[in-house]
């Protein structure tokens, strides 16, 4: 059972505190354990993102520190009913314990190194973010970066064996499509991914389009971004790439937010935003792996898991956008993913 606490819970490496986590050499210290370095990254990035959004919104995030009875805890920051944000959440979780067989089964299907059908000791640290602006012209953003480690017993020599991997990505969900926003968002992350491997962006962009697909609606949740899971390459180059992507959120999103947050809109356009928010809820509840994993993990904090859901949403019976409308143009893009950076080079 997760409980809110005013005291810092015990973590494997990094204590959570109200103090800002400053940059230091540990993020570049290859002799330090990878979990310790990843914890530092996500705590620092949480501080920086919240400060950046507060500067735009004018309202402060609420901070909740919580402990997990089975081991670890987290720090959730929520900005609700803000001047710009209807609801925004940035959550850090640092958890260790035993993964029940039901949750492990989902992972063994994708990772052959994990023994099936048994409880497994695990460690995970990650940052998750979702921001739903008030203005329907401003898009929703989601990101997640995590490091997962499973104790699988012993190797052939009898030494302790652990299997680790990264997962994450970032994606944008507009209610009203601005192609220049889509190109800007994709360009920021492609720039970082290309430094690691020029093949990563096209692969991860395609994976993002495939993952954020609402099967029963036959449409995608948004205009994509990049997505990766079960990335067992835990090299220094990969860690630094993920770190750089995590550092890029404000560059990718805030310029778009500033352009759109004060644009005029109609009541009908606000209703369309709420209908699209309904689709967001459908995906997160029915398909999202992170939501499923969280709800299957004993002692998980439900408030943090459900943080991604919008404050308000709408479902209308047999709704369809009008012909030649902005809504219909956006909807058609959601049905058929676009290679945004190729669009930019077309005449």
UniProtKB/TrEMBL annotation:
Cellular component per GO, a single term:
cytoplasm
Keyword Oxidoreductase: yes or no? yes
The record's EC number reads: 1.3.3.3
**InterPro entries assigned:** Coprogen_oxidase_aer (IPR001260), Coprogen_oxidase_aer_sf (IPR036406)
Q: Name one Pfam family in it.
A: Coprogen_oxidas
Q: Supply the NCBIfam families for this chain.
A: PRK05330.1
Q: What is this protein called?
A: coproporphyrinogen oxidase
What is the organism field in this record? Phytophthora fragariae
């Amino acid at each position: 059972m997760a409980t809110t606490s005013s005291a810092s819970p015990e973590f494997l490496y990094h204590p959570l505190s109200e103090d800002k986590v400053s940059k230091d050499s540990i993020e570049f210290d290859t002799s330090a354990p990878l979990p310790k370095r990843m914890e530092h990254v996500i705590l620092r990035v949480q501080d920086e993102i919240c400060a950046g959004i507060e500067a735009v919104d004018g309202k402060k995030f609420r901070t909740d520190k919580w402990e997990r009875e089975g081991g670890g805890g987290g720090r959730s920051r929520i900005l609700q009913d803000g001047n710009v944000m209807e609801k925004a959440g940035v959550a850090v979780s640092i958890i260790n314990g035993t993964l029940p067989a039901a949750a492990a089964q989902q992972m063994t299907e994708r990772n052959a190194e994990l023994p099936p059908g048994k409880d497994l000791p695990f460690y995970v640290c990650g940052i998750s973010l979702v921001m739903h602006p008030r203005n329907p012209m401003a898009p929703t953003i989601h990101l997640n970066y995590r490091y997962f480690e499973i104790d699988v017993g012993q190797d052939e020599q009898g030494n302790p064996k652990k299997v680790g991997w990264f997962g994450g990505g970032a994606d944008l969900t507009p209610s009203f499509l601005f192609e220049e926003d889509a190109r800007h968002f994709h360009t920021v992350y492609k720039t970082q991914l290309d430094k690691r491997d020029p093949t990563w962006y096209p692969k991860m962009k395609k994976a993002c389009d495939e993952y954020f697909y609402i099967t029963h609606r036959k449409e995608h949740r948004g205009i994509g971004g990049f997505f990766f899971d079960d990335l067992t390459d835990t090299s220094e180059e990969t860690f630094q790439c993920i770190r750089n992507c995590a550092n890029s959120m404000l560059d990718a999103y805030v310029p778009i937010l500033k352009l759109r947050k004060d644009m005029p809109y109609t009541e009908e356009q606000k209703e369309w935003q709420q209908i699209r928010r309904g689709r967001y809820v459908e995906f997160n509840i029915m398909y999202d792996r992170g939501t499923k994993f969280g709800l299957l993990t004993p002692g998980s904090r439900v408030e943090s898991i459900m943080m991604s859901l919008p404050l308000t949403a709408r479902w209308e019976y047999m709704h369809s956008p009008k012909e030649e409308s902005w809504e219909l143009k956006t909807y058609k893009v959601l049905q058929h993913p676009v290679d945004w950076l190729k669009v930019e080079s077309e005449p």
